[in-house]
Amino acid sequence: MSHTAHIPSHRKPRRRASKVAFRAGVAGGVLSTIAVAGAAAPANAEPVTETIEMPTLTSGLAGSFERSADATQQIALDIESRAQEDAAATKAAETAKKAQAEAERTAKEKKKKAEEEARAKAASAERASRSAERTTLATASKSTGSGDRAASSGTSQATGSAAALVSFVKAQVGDAYVMGGTGPNAWDCSGLVQAAYRQIGIDLPRVSGDQSTAGTQVSLSNLQPGDILYWGGAGSAYHVGVYVGDGQFVGAQNPSSGVVLRSLDWDQPSGAVRVL
Length: 276
Known about the structure:
Blueprint (H helix, E strand, L loop, with lengths): L19 E3 L9 E5 L11 E5 L4 H88 L2 H4 L9 H12 L4 E2 L8 E2 L1 H10 L9 H4 L4 E3 L9 E4 L7 E7 L2 E7 L3 E6 L7 E4 L2
Parallel strand pairs: 4-5
Antiparallel strand pairs: 1-2, 2-3, 6-11, 7-8, 7-11, 8-9, 9-10
Helix pairs in contact: 3-4
């Protein structure tokens, strides 16, 4: 026997190393088995096994895909809704534009019709006025004995060039007034006076202001047939006519009256100028 046989061994008992086996299935949700051998079990002991189910990765991915699909579908629905709203707004705008255009067209037609009716009424009134004035002139001519002597207009007898001038302007009574008109059937005030004097070989300026200083200034109490009457200042007159005797004048007044024979009292002139 060894002399050391009675001495207890200080070495610790040899223990069997633990055996650990991990088996994991990460794809497709496979069941993983982990086998663990107890460290303190005897050498001939059966290994202890425990089976646990690992969570599958695909379940989370599937949920994510489902949420993504729902979000995509919602976006598509939102886009479709906005497209429908835009289409409705565009259609409403087009409808409103058409309605506005139709309203404007109707308003223009009504305005045009009203203007035409107003012009027709004015023309009718003008024709009636001309007819009445011509009747008055015809009556005056008969009362003096002849048309030529009627040019003298009663108490103020016109002779020679003055008689021809007066006869001319009276013959235009009833013609239309047109701004810038110089005859033969439409006149403005200075156009008529200029044409009347041209009949007797005298050229006058074209506008009223110049005609009001074309001769010698005379008093309204000393008028003679053929004198030019003016309204406004001498040199700045805005209207002219021809004195035809017996306190009357002929002038192209305005678009509603045309060429008229009127008494001086109807529209008192500012002054007169004598050219003859």
